[in-house]
Specification:
By secondary structure, the chain is of the alpha+beta class. It has 5 helices and 16 strands. The strands form 2 sheets. Strands 2-3-4-1-13-16-15-14 form an 8-stranded mixed sheet, covered by helices on one side. An 8-stranded mixed sheet has the order 6-7-8-5-9-12-11-10, covered by helices on one side. Strand 3 and strand 4 form a beta hairpin. The longest helix is centred in the first third of the chain and has 12 residues. InterPro entries: Glyas_Bleomycin-R_OHBP_Dase (IPR029068).
């Protein structure tokens, strides 16, 4: 089912990679391999030039592994080893808060994860406004929040991409902030992303994490990139007296804890070069393949890495 309200030609093409900070890289890699079926394609230590492009020089030398779903070839998950951050709790701070992965059978995956390092925080259930879509939520080995989603209806007409296997690729990245309207306009106006209705939604996992009342809603919407099934969800977190949502804790010289960084493809970097933390440069490795990239800081403090494909 399609419910687009605008039909533009987005500058952002697709999700190329997501990066999570984890305190124990070996354990995290084993979890992704054993329970999600991901395969490692690259290991190493982060170079000083790459982390400088992120504005996070303290992460230089950190061990990392780049992985991908077994049926995928060009969409990656990068796990970076970093010390645990006191005070960090998933779904309570601004920036990237979740990575959403397409799966073939979310109920079967829930059974598999029941005895895994992934903590299920939301059992499979239909979405409030699109009941043919069934999603579950979990927290990974590094405190990264992952959503796993399936289309139970007609997959040909769905806005979701078809899964490439039991577990497929990341197709949505979720960003939270205190000013939903400002976030929406920043992404839509800057990158001409396709809009969908803005919802006032009850989200159990966020209500529990932030100790909100069961009747409280958050403002959210998912906006579209150019390639089918590549979306960015924006969540407006309640702030003010008695609220717990706020900036992500951690050392500002290092990658944020949990859901740390998102890498997207863009046709040309010229439109964002002036915003870049460091000038665009070429990087090697599975994610970059020698292409130019740069990183900008989004309206909620999120690190948005852009790779040029032109």
């Amino acid at each position: 089912m399609s419910d687009w309200t605008t039909f533009t030609d987005p500058q952002l093409l697709r999700i190329a990679a997501t990066t999570a900070s984890v305190p124990d890289l070996d354990a995290a890699e084993a979890g992704y391999a054993d329970y999600l079926g991901f395969v490692a394609v690259e290991r190493g230590a982060l170079g000083a030039d790459l982390v400088a492009s992120w504005g996070r020089p303290g992460s230089a030398g950190a061990r990392f592994v780049t992985m991908r779903a077994a049926g995928e070839t060009d969409t990656f998950v990068r796990l970076v080893e970093a010390p645990a951050v006191a005070g960090y709790r998933p779904l309570t701070s601004f920036g990237w808060t979740a990575f959403e992965i397409i799966v073939d059978d979310v109920h079967a995956l829930a059974a598999r994860l029941a005895t895994s390092p992934f903590e299920i925080i939301g059992a499979p259930r239909p979405l409030q406004f699109m009941p043919s879509i069934v999603a579950m939520q979990a927290v990974g080995p590094g405190g990264e929040c992952l959503y796993f989603t399936m289309e139970s209806g007609d997959r040909e007409s769905s806005i979701l991409p078809p899964p490439s296997g039991f577990v497929g690729r990341t197709f949505i990245t979720v960003c939270a902030g205190e000013d939903f309207g400002a976030m929406l306009r920043w992404y839509v106006d800057r990158f001409a992303l396709r809009e969908r209705p803005v919802r006032q939604s009850k989200v159990d996992i966020i209500q529990r994490a932030q100790r909100l009342s069961s009747d409280e809603t958050i403002e959210l919407s998912a906006i579209g990139m150019r390639q089918r099934g590549n979306l960015l969800e924006l969540d407006g977190y309640p702030v003010g007296a008695g609220r717990v949502a706020g900036p992500r804790p951690g050392d500002p010289k290092m990658l944020p804890p949990g859901n740390a960084l998102v890498t997207l493809e863009i046709e040309q970097l010229a439109s964002v070069a002036a915003l870049a933390i460091a000038p665009p440069a070429r990087h090697d490795g599975a994610i970059y393949a020698g292409r130019r990239s740069c990183t900008i800081t989004g309206p909620a403090g999120e690190l948005l890495e852009l790779i040029e494909v032109d």
